[in-house]
């Protein structure tokens, strides 16, 4: 587990972003997080697995993830070590780990008002398992939103759109560039990421957007 945070002001608004694997957070809500950090929010990022399935043994994806999330500006970063592709067998332990972070490791003056997490309509078992753990661990957080990843099913129908301008979209692209072990994947290509951002923006009536499904929304 790794954490760092900068000095915060009293009663700072906070966001927690949860991903099953390194790069999930950046893919799903990286531009939104960059914009929120720029607006003064304290962002906590939690990556549940090392994401080692399908990778060479000498690749440390947590190092890639740490550099990526730091480039977004996340003030606290936690890397956990649940086994990749096996998280569905450890939901109770994941809930406990997330609760420990939320209630014990975030500064007391930070008010977490929103959680970004995996969506349950996803073909990857780790994504579905992390969603299940998140909605329990984040039950006291007023807003819980599920983000889109390349493995979400076609029934992902967003109700919330975060408008992001070109600057913050480029911050997202820069963050994803730190995941060197994943650059061969089609969904990591900047032109494909831009196409999705334009499509979601078209749906929302803006130029570029990231899209989310509501699990819980107190306004």
Automatic annotation (TrEMBL):
GO MF, any single term: hydrolase activity, acting on carbon-nitrogen (but not peptide) bonds, in linear amides
Q: Which Pfam families match?
A: PIG-L (PF02585)
* InterPro entries xref list: GlcNAc_PI_deacetylase-related, LmbE-like_dom_sf
> Can you tell which superkingdom this protein's organism belongs to?
Bacteria
Query: This chain belongs to which protein, by name?
Result: PIG-L family deacetylase
Q: Name the species this protein comes from.
A: Candidatus Ignatzschineria merdigallinarum
């Amino acid at each position: 587990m790794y954490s760092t945070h900068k000095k915060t002001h009293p009663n700072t608004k906070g966001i927690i972003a949860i991903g099953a694997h390194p790069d999930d957070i950046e893919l799903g809500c990286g531009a939104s997080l960059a914009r929120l950090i720029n607006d003064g929010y304290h962002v906590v990022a939690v990556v549940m697995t090392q994401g080692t399935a399908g990778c060479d043994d000498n690749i440390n994806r947590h190092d890639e993830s740490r550099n990526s999330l730091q480039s977004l500006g996340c003030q606290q970063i936690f890397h956990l070590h649940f086994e990749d592709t096996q998280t569905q067998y450890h939901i109770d332990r994941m809930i406990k780990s997330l609760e420990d972070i939320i209630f014990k490791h975030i500064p007391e003056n930070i008010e977490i008002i929103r959680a970004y997490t995996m969506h349950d309509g996803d073909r990857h078992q780790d994504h579905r398992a992390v969603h299940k753990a998140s909605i329990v661990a984040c039950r006291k957080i007023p807003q819980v939103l599920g983000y889109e990843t390349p493995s979400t099913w076609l029934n992902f129908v967003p109700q919330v759109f975060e408008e992001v301008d070109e600057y913050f979209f480029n911050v997202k692209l820069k963050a994803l560039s730190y995941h060197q072990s994943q650059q061969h994947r089609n969904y990591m290509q900047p032109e494909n990421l831009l196409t999705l951002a334009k499509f979601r923006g078209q749906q929302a009536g803006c130029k570029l957007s990231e899209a989310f499904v509501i699990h819980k929304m107190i306004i």
